[in-house]
């Protein structure tokens, strides 16, 4: 196994162990010492991957940026509307798999480091802007609205969907919440 893969696996192990401890004992009651002892690693190893405890929660946003790049590279869909829905659908899978993680991540992100998370949101916005612009440039999509503004609205719908789903509990379908809002907004984005 490559060294890079081992590092990636260790970071994921630290992340998942931390999340498990946060759920069990509460975020404020879990120390870095507790995390490293549970993982069986040195404190320095933890800090090599996560500069502060808060960065464990921010890791979810970073992994979503990696995921979106993988999804975009694998996609064959040419229709921009369907392409965007596929991108968002793949991103929602993370939350569907770890539903209770969402509430913890959102509350701690807001509380701890919105400045840090804003970098992930900016990257997400840039990627969506590029996807939309690419469709416009290739003639596959027409709109009277600039790609960066369309991307802003879509990022807003994405986070609104997640927050709505989080507040309602995991009983509602996250993708359905998003698709309902997406369809309403799409009518105003697409050129008639």
From TrEMBL:
DNA-binding region range list: 31-50
Q: Can you give the residue ranges of the HTH tetR-type domain?
A: 8-68
Q: Does the keyword DNA-binding apply?
A: yes
Fetch the PROSITE patterns from UniProt: HTH_TETR_1 (PS01081), HTH_TETR_2 (PS50977)
Q: Which GO terms describe its molecular function?
A: DNA binding
InterPro entries linked: DNA-bd_HTH_TetR-type_CS (IPR023772), Homeodomain-like_sf (IPR009057), HTH-type_Tx_Regulator (IPR050624), HTH_TetR (IPR001647), Tet_transcr_reg_TetR-rel_C_sf (IPR036271), Tscrpt_reg_YsiA_C (IPR013570)
Keywords for this protein: DNA-binding, Repressor
Superkingdom as given in the UniProt entry: Bacteria
Q: Name one Pfam family in it.
A: TetR_C_4
Keyword Repressor assigned = yes
Question: Record's PANTHER family?
Answer: ACREF/ENVCD OPERON REPRESSOR-RELATED (PTHR43479), ACREF_ENVCD OPERON REPRESSOR-RELATED (PTHR43479:SF11)
Name assigned to this protein = Transcriptional regulator
């Amino acid at each position: 196994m490559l060294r890079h893969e081992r590092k990636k696996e260790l970071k994921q192990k630290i992340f998942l162990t931390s999340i498990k401890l946060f759920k069990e004992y509460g975020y404020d009651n879990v120390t870095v010492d507790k995390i490293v002892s549970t993982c069986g690693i040195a404190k320095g190893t933890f800090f090599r991957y996560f500069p502060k405890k808060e960065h464990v929660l921010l890791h979810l946003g970073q992994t979503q940026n990696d995921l979106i790049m993988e999804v975009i590279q694998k996609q064959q869909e040419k229709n921009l509307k369907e392409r965007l829905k596929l991108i968002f659908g793949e991103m929602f899978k993370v939350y569907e798999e770890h539903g209770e993680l969402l509430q913890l991540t959102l509350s701690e992100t807001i509380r701890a480091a919105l400045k840090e998370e804003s970098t992930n949101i900016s990257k997400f916005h840039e990627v969506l802007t590029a996807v939309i612009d690419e469709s416009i440039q290739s003639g596959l999509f027409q709109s009277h609205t600039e790609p960066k503004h369309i991307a802003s609205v879509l990022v807003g719908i994405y986070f609104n969907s997640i927050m709505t789903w989080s507040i309602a509990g995991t009983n509602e379908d996250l993708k359905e919440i998003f698709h309902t809002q997406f369809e309403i907004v799409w009518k105003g984005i697409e050129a008639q």
